[in-house]
Amino acid sequence: MENKTKLKSSKVFVARNAADPLLFTGPACNSDLRFWRWGDDNLFPYALALMSRRSTSHRRIINDKADYISGKGFSTDPTRPELGEFVSCVNGRGESLRQLMNKLAFDKSLFGNAFVEVVTNPDRAFLSLYHQDASKCRLARDNAHVILHHDWTRFRASEAQVLPLYPAFEQMSDGTLRSVIHYKDYEPMFEHYGVPPYIAGMDVSAIAYKTDKWNISRLDNSFQLSGVMLLDGTVDNEWEAEELVRTARDKFAGKPGQVMFVVKDSTEGDNSRFIPVSSDNEGDWKELHDQATTDIVVAHSWFRSLSGLDYSSGFSSERILHEYEVALNTVILSEQEELLEPLKSVIELVLEVDASSLQIINRPPARSKPTYMRVWEARKADGLPYDPNDAEQQLFLAQIAKIPVTGND
Fold first, then answer.
1. How many alpha carbons lie under 13 Å from residue 66 in its C-beta half-sphere?
2. Where are the beta strands (DSSP E) in 36-97?
3. Is residue 160 part of a domain?
4. 79, 147: one domain
5. Which domain holds residue 389?
6. Which residues are paired to 118 by β-bridges?
7. How many helices (DSSP H) and strands (DSSP E) are in the chain?
8. What is the pLDDT of residues 273-303, one digit of tens each?
9. From residue 53, how far is each of 48, 61, 110, 209 by CA, in Å?
C-alpha cells in the first residue's frame, strides 16, 4: 500500500514502496523496454558531447550561448529578502541560481534538453534545486518518470535512480520529496526528447573538426611531402621485408601512413628513390573550413561577432552591440523565460514566496556609453523620457554595473 501526503497547495505527493526502482514498468520487462531510447543506440547525447569537444567553433558558440542566457545575475524585490537569500544559494552544494542556470543553459544549448531536480520535504521547510547531467537522464516508458544512470553503455536497473516528472513529487527513502523538471526544444516527430537547434549543422561541425585534424596531421608530419619510397634490398622471407620497411618508416617517415614503402629486389647499383605525391589543395581546405564555420554559426541561430570569430579583422564594438541586441530579442530572452518560469513556479509552490520580481540581469559584452554618465543622461542620449531630479536616475552607470569609477569626482 502506498503512502500519500497532501500539502497545503492540494498537490498529492506519492511515496513509492518498491524494491525494484523500475518496478512500475514491469518487473519482468527487458531493460531496453523500461525507457525511451535517446537515439537509435540510446547514446546520442554521448555523440553530441564528443562533437562539442572536437569542434572549436561549435564549442565556443555553445559556451557563449550558455553565458549570455544565464546572464550576469538576478534582480529581486528588496522587500522580499527570503527570495534574495534563496537566489544566492539554491542547494546544499552552495551553488547560486546563476550557476544553476548556466549549467541548464549549457545542456539545453548542447543537447536540446536539460534537467533540474527539485528537493523539499512534506512540511516544505526547505527547497533545493540540483542540476542533473542531461546525458545521464532518460525518460521512462510510463512518460511520468526520469531514470538517472551513471553509464548508459552498461545499464543496470539496480544502479538506476527513478524520479517523477514535475509537477508530480514522490517521497524517497530519506523522507524528502523529489521531482525533476525536463526542458526540451520542440522538434516535429520527436515526442520524448528535444533536438538541439544546430541539428542541421552536425555534418559541418564534423567538417570543421576534420579540417583541424588534417592540419594537425600535417604538423605532426613536419609538413613533409607524402609519397612512395622505393627501397632496393634482398630479403629471404616476408618477415625480413616487414622488418626492413618498419626500420625505414621509423627513421624517415614523419607521420606513419604518410609515406608508403615498397621493397624490390636489388639489381646493379642502388636504385632506391622517393617519388613525392603532391597536391595543391591547401586553398580548397581553407575555404572548406571557413564555409563550415559559417554554417555552424547559422545552424546555431547565432552571430559571428558574439563568438569571437571576426576579431582578426578588427574589433567593432558597434557591430557587437548591434548583434547583441538582435540576439537578445530573438534568442536570449526567450530562452531565459523558458528556463526561469518553471523555477519561479517551484519557488512559489514550495516556499510560498512571490517570485514575479525575479529577473535575469543582462549586460552587453561591450560598453555603449561611458561609465561616468548618469542614468538620466543615458536615457536622454537614447531619446527616452528622463528626469534629472529623480534620485535613481542620478546614479552613475558605473554604480549600476558595479564598476569602480576612477579619477576625481
1. 22
2. 74-75
3. yes
4. yes
5. 369-409
6. 129, 179
7. 11, 14
8. 555 555 555 556 677 777 778 888 888 999 9
9. 9, 12, 11, 10
318 lies in a domain?
A: no
Q: Residue 103: which of 66, 78, 75, 138 has the closest Cα?
A: 66
Count of residues for the chain?
409
The pTM of the full predicted model, rounded to 2 decimals, is 0.74
pLDDT digits (tens, 9 = 90+) for 348-393: 999 999 999 999 988 888 766 677 788 888 877 767 788 888 888 8
Domain count, the chain: 3
Contact 101, 109 (CB under 8 A): no
Give the C-alpha distances (Å, rounded to integers) separating 163 from 10, 20, 120, 303: 20, 13, 13, 38
User: Phi and psi (nearest 5°) for 212?
Assistant: -65, -40
Residue 212 CA to residue 60 CA, distance in Å, equals 15
Do both 124 and 239 map to the same domain? no
Count CB atoms within 10 A of the CB of residue 34. 23
Let me know whether 48 and 179 are in one domain: yes
CA distance 70 to 121: 28
Look at the block and give the residue holding cell 547583441: 324
Residue 396: strand pairing partners:
374
User: How confident is the model at residue 24, as a pLDDT?
Assistant: 47
